[in-house]
Amino acid sequence: MGKNKKKVYCAGPMFSPAERQEETQIASALKEAGFDTFNPSEDGLEINEIMGQAQDPKLMMAVMPFFPAIRKAVFALDFFQVVEGCDCLVFNMNGRVPDGGSVSEAASAHMAGKPVVLYKETPISFMLGQDNPMIDGLSYTWELVGTVGDIPNAVRQAIDRADRMKVGDDWRPSLAPMPREAVDRGRKIWLLMKSLKWTAGIPELIAALPALIQGPETRSQIDPAGNVTVGENLCLGSLTLEPDAQIREAVDSLWADFAQDVRAQLGLGRQGG
């Protein structure tokens, strides 16, 4: 597919090793067929993995004020990938009921004009072998793909069908202000994930962040060597790309948003208490 390689969002449950393995199998099948993929459990921000690095109960208590800001970052990144970063979404509907987060992702893709492919091999259904029409209708075709091997061809057909429905080269999905804000934040998070080599450890971050959040408002900085620091001493990591204006703005705005969210959680003013 060359430079026009399409990217597919892999939506589905990922709360057990078996579920994550199935999502990896779906992503692998798509990659082998020439697609790029975004699999949240491998390519995104997984809350369980972040929290799991803070095994010490004292660290867990210390990180809780930051939890809402982390959740917001997870939403923004995944929402950006669904609405703007990917060309199609595959919804793995296996399980007793479809995964709630994946339902939201599939609906968001549908409203953004992105094709949705429904995959399901389990016999459990809403009624008479069919699932909830509010989910089945997201695919436009009302069809289910029954095997992982058939997913790439279904994706290819869905993308071709969506491309034929677009009017002109300037077609773009329109978003209301609040969804657009989430997409913009997610785009910045993705940019830093691709360009920042993270070196700060979780315990180090937890120990340093309270003073930065509760004290006078601090700024992020990028030194000539590309090291990203917050305050005077907390180095988050080093950039693997040249720190252009887009990266600098992403670092500044994401740190400012994070600090503001945590201050609000702690009941502090914008400048600290």
What is the CATH architecture term of the largest domain?
A: 3-Layer(aba) Sandwich
Q: Can you tell me the CATH class of the largest domain?
A: Alpha Beta
Q: The CATH topology of the largest domain, please?
A: Rossmann fold
Total separate domains: 2
Sketch the topology as an H/E string, one letter per element: EHEHHHHEHEHEHHEHEEEH
Q: How widely separated are the two ends?
A: 55 Å
Structure classification = alpha/beta
Strand proportion: 5-15%
Number of helices: 11
Tell me, briefly, the overall form: globular
Output the strand order for the largest sheet.
2-1-3-4-5
What are the segments in which pLDDT stays under 50 over at least 5 consecutive residues?
Answer: none
Q: How large, in whole angstroms, is the Cα Rg? A: 21 Å
Largest sheet: 5 strands, parallel
Q: What is the residue-mean pLDDT, rounded to a whole number?
A: 88
What does this molecule look like?
It is a single chain. With 273 residues, the protein is an alpha/beta fold. It folds into 2 domains: 2-165, Rossmann fold (3-Layer(aba) Sandwich); 177-266, no CATH class. The chain has 11 helices and 9 strands. The chain has helices at 17-32, 40-43, 47-52, 57-63, 67-85, 100-111, 133-136, 151-165, 177-195, 202-214, 245-266, and strands spanning 7-11, 36-38, 88-92, 116-119, 144-145, 196-198, 220-222, 227-230, 234-239. The strands form 2 sheets. A 5-stranded parallel beta sheet has the order 2-1-3-4-5, sandwiched between helices. β8 (227-230) and β9 (234-239) form a beta hairpin. α5 packs across α9 and α9 (177-195) crosses α11. The radius of gyration is 21 Å and the shape is globular. The mean pLDDT is 88.
